[in-house]
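We emphasize that the prediction below concerns an isolated chain of 464 residues; any contacts that depend on oligomerization or on bound cofactors are therefore not represented. The input was used exactly as deposited, without trimming of termini.
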Amino acid sequence: MKSILFVDLDESLINTDVLREQLIRSFAISPWGTLKILFRSGFRPERVKAALVDKVDIDPKTLPYNADVLALIHQAKKEGHPVVLATASHEKIANRIAKFLGIFDAVIATTDTHNCKGKKKVALMQDFAKGRPFDYVGDSRADLAIFKEARTPYIVGRLAYSGLHQRIARPRIFKPFLKAIRPHQWSKNALIFLPLLTSHNLTWAPIMTALFGFICFSLAASAIYIINDMVDVEDDRHHPEKKNRPFARGDLTIDEGIWLSLLLLASTIFLSYVWLPAGLWVLAGYITLTFFYSFSLKAQPVLDVFCLSTLYAIRVLYGQVINEIESSSWLLAFCVFFFLSLAFMKRTAEIEKTQRKEQPLMTRRGYQTADDFLLKAAGVGSGLLSILVLMLYINSDKVTKLYVYPDFLWGAAYVLLYWKLRLWLIATRGNMNQDPVLFALSDPVSYTTAALVILFGALAKGLF
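Result of the prediction step, given as a C-alpha cell string:
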C-alpha cells in the first residue's frame, strides 16, 4: 500500500501566506470594513477566512509556487502515491489552486466552521489516511505535531526540528531584502540638498547635516517601499516587470516584510531623534502621508498625483528645516508644480502601456484609459507653471541679492523647459518604461541638462 503525501499550502507549496496577503489587501481596500470583519468574527480564524475569501481574490495562475515542492509532488505521483493538499487556507481557495494545478487527489482545508490547523489538521489527515502511512510537507511550528506523526517530514525553510526529516531550503533573504528596499530610489532624497544650493549655503556643517537627513529619509522611504509592495502584491504579479519584485516572486514572505519594515521605521525614527530632532515632525509627516497613500490615496484619481508631488516637496522642506534655512515660497512653489508634472507623467506612462497592451490596467489606480488626455493636459500645464514660477523668481528682488549676473538664469529656465517637454514627448509616445525620475537618471540628455543648469547658475553667481 502506497503512502500518502500531504502537502501544506502557505509558505510550503507557495512562497507566501494567503491569509496575510488577504488581510493586507483588505485593509488597503477598506480599513474599517476589515476591522468590522475581525470584530464580528470574534477573531476566530475560520470565520475571518470565510469572510475574506469573497472580499479579496487570489489568482492561482500567478501565485509563487515552490519549484522544489512541485518536483516532490510530481515524483510522488510518478511513483503512484496519492497526493493531498492539506491546508489551513479556506477550502474555496484550496480547491481553486488544486483545480488549477491538477495534481492533487483530494483537498483538506478550512471550512466556514472549522480551522484546519495544528491538532485539527492532524485529526483530519489521520481520518483520511485510515491507518496508511503518510509523508507531510510543511513549514511552521503549527506543523510540529504533524511532523511527529509523519513517516517522512519535509520541512520547508529554516524551522528547527530535532527529529529525522528532509529539508527543502528557502532562499536567504539578504539579496531579496536589498532589492525590496530599492536603494536606486534613494536618489530622490537628494532633494534634501536642494535648499543648500538655492540658499548658497554649501559649507561643511550643513552638508553633513543634510547627509544625515538623507540617511534617515532613505531608511523611511525603504520601509514604505516594502509596505507598498506587500499591498500591491497581486497587481505586481500581473505586471510584466513588477512581477519580479521580491514579494510577488515569493522571495520574501509577508511576515518577513512586516518585520523588516518595522525595523527600518524604528531605525529611522531613532536616528532622526538622535541626529536631527528638529526635522522629526517633517519625517513623521512623510511617513504618515505615505501610509495613507499606500493604503488609500493611491486609488483616488488626481488626489494620488497631488500626494506624490507633496511627498517630493516634503523632502525639500525637510532639507530646509534640519539646516534651519529660511523657507522659500519660490522654491516650494516651483517644486510643487515641477513634481506634480512628473507625477502626472508617471500615470500617463502607465496608461500608455495599457493602451499598447504592454500591461493590464492596475486595479488599485483610479484611472481609466479614457483619462489619458486629461492627465497629459494637466501634466504639461503643471510643468509649464513650474517654469513660469522660475521665470517670475528671476525677475524678483530676491535674486539680485544672491546673484551677480541674474540674467544668466534665463538660460537655466529655457534648458529646464526643453527638458520637461522632451520627457513629456517620450512619455506620450509610450517610450517611458519606468518612473520619470529613474528614467532621467539613465538618460544622457538629462545629465547634460543638469550640467547646463549648473553652468548657468555658476555664471549668474559670477564664479567665472
